[in-house]
Write a structure and sequence with these properties.
The protein contains 20 helices and 22 strands. It is of the alpha+beta class.
Length: 670
Amino acid sequence: METIIRGVRGSIANPAPDTIFYGGNTVCVELNTDSGATIFFDAGTGLREAGDLLPESGECHIIISHGHMDHMFGLWFFRPIHSPKWITHLYLPSWLENMPDFLYQCAFFPVPFKELRGDVRIHLVSAGATFEIPTPQGSEPIVVEPFAVCHPGGGLGYRVSVDNAMFVYGGDHEITDSPHAHSDAVKSLSGADIAIVDAMYNECDYHPGWGHSRWEDWVDVAQSAGVRNLVLTHHDPVRPDQELDKLDQKFSALESSDSKLKIYVAREGMRFTPKGPIPFTRNGSDWLLVFLERLSQYRDENSILDRILAKAREITHADAGTIYLREGNELVFAYTHNDTLFSADSAHKHIYVNIRMPISEKSIAGYVAATGCPLNIPNIRELPPGVPYSFNDSFDRSSGYFTYSMLVIPFFDKSSEVLGVLQLINSLNPQTKQPCFFNLSMMYNVRLLAREAAGILERSAVERHGIYGILRMAAVHDPSETGPHAERVGSIAAELYQCWAEHAGHIPDDIRYEKGHVRLASMLHDIGKVGISDLILKKPAKLTDEEFMVMRGHTEFGASIMAADPGTIAAYACEIARHHHQKWDGSGYAGSTNEGKLSGSDIPLMARITAIADVFDALVSKRCYKKPWSIEEALLEMKKEAGRHFDPSLIALLPEIRDLITSIYKKFPE
Ligand code: C2E
Ligand code: SIN
Ligand code: SIN
Ligand code: FE
Ligand code: FE
């Protein structure tokens, strides 16, 4: 069984720029059973599009909760009732018996009910009188139990037993302050796998007697009723996306609590099974699902950022885009594309730029991070009067770029903190290639993308912070293993790997995937130094032969710490830790004995790459036992050692990443 939210507003439809994300249609819910039955609950304006998506011919069911117009208006424009190839069963509360003739009179609609081309069959239902809906395949019928709700003029809700699950459509219902209101509501929702309820109000804007509930009450009720998935709908027509977002974030923050209840704010197009929501897209196209599945295979944050940016630009035809990530009270430039200034293939070369800005309402990205509100700016040079932010044109001036329109969307983590900001620039008309503004459907799709991809981004950040944590622990013992040193070794190794893989003709997707592993795993190459005594590690002079023998043990000790299942980052780190002091000519080591020595291409590639990054950075850095060298001196030394210490074919690639190395040292200074 799967249910799809088709309309979410109460009272009146309100399609508007600030309702586009959750949707502007009035209430309608679609339920598709495993046996192939299609059932709609209420016929708000959301029913129209749902009808357009149905096949040429068939049979469907519409169950109405009450006759208020926001629950009926879509019926007129539901394609099946105008098609001779469709049978539509309309289940009406008994007091609405004359409703169809009344609705389809010429004062309201051009075609009288009796003359509709489709076969519409009326069934009258009432509270407590359970009825059955036969299934197309003749399997177990679907059992529907109507119950009375509290709403002006009366109304019904429905408990539906279907596909071994309990689905409840709550209709319009006010949980009043009267003594039985709470327990009645608990009874109607009891044991629901999915319950869809009218939460038009909150504690602050509640209108007693208007027939709608506060979401806070539903949360209490659902808790007592043992509901699994509570879906809040019938939103106030003017409640903007921002406000619903805040509410939704409140509930995702609750998710970690051990209650089995999950709460969702209904959004058009959202789909649920009894297990929970399914990532969705509009009109059944599954680009987002396919995208997220791929994205979740990446580990490296840069690769994830690259893919998100590429997808967001594809959706919006944006010429350029930048992702900023939040670090404390600052936004840090993390990834950028700019088709006018450089090709997307070389985007990785621009990630080592050290740009930071405070999170304040003065800059555009800062405003979005500070408020959590997206901005869609049609013309950056004509900002609305009175806004706190302004456009900083220093990038345009220094690069010769011309920024015209901008779409800026926040990413949130699980606890509703801003994780970063996605800034898209200049949506290009696909024909003329002229910059134009970002339209609403672009904005909708990018918000959806940011929302769904944020979890994957957050997970990669968690992994990165985990590695930082390990490195910080190591740094307590050995100050040379600081964050910047590990970042530099990781970045140099990652770039050297990419250069090698491009020469070897690997496909970009594989390169991105491997590169992420190389970056994170090589950061941990010296983790085994935590097992070496301070007397040796911090000796401000040359080590004796005996001391050096002990020191050599950091390789196998590191490998033993990181040992893990193949394919994981830890497994890469294990291999790198063990072999990063092997030498091409066989004179290196992989432990404090002479066992396990390797030479040439028997040394794992990732270890050969890390050896170069590690020694290069050791030379350029200050150590307790040595002075820092210049980048030029270090490069010369590396070249001298090609074929002796290092794989000569890798050393031959260093000139190609020379500029990147310089920017890496600028981004991660000591
Ligand atoms: P490390 O400081 O991270 O250095 C890593 C590798 O960079 C060294 O591996 C070596 O191959 C290279 N390297 C570092 N400094 C120089 C240098 O001045 N000249 C040249 N040609 N190469 C250099 P290695 O030798 O196997 O040492 C492994 C680790 O042992 C070092 O890691 C460091 O923690 C420690 N270590 C090595 N020699 C000394 C020393 O004389 N005194 C102290 N206190 N520690 C040392
Ligand atoms: C309805 O939402 O059912 C009609 C309008 C209202 O009661 O607020
Ligand atoms: C919608 O009706 O808004 C979306 C339809 C869908 O995702 O299937
Ligand atoms: Fe109503
Ligand atoms: Fe080492």
